[in-house]
Known about the structure:
- By secondary structure, the protein is mainly beta.
- It has strands spanning 3-8, 10-12, 18-25, 33-39, 46-51, 58-60, 68-73, 78-83, 92-99, 116-117, 121-125.
- Strands 2, 4, 5, 6, 9, 10 and 11 form a seven-stranded mixed sheet that branches.
- The protein is globular, with a radius of gyration of 13 Å.
- The N and C termini lie far apart (40 Å).
Amino acid sequence: QVQLVQSGGGLGQPGGSLRLSCAASGRTLDYYAIGWFRQAPGKEREGVICISSSDRSTQYADSVKGRFTISRDISKNTVYLQIHSLKPEDTAVYYCAADDAIVTGTGCLRPLHYLYWGQGTQVTVSS
């Protein structure tokens, strides 16, 4: 079992930055697929950035390339999502997720591959 607890996010201004954290307990995430997803009101949950479990490559949704980064602090078993150049369309509830299944390439952007989910964190971008 893996428990994921999120923190961070909140209100950001257009052009600004925010960081979200996802602390894992129960298992280390060394060989897990790790993803960040978001869901805006009335829209489906979409993957924005992830680390595949097969080759540890980072995959991005086109809408966030160049602005979102994912990183890990192995000592803290924590994953971070850094958002730069915030846009109003980034407003959504953000979720981290993890799974020990073998996930290849952009497959790690698909929510169906994940069993473990964080509780969600609201990000609102507004001036």
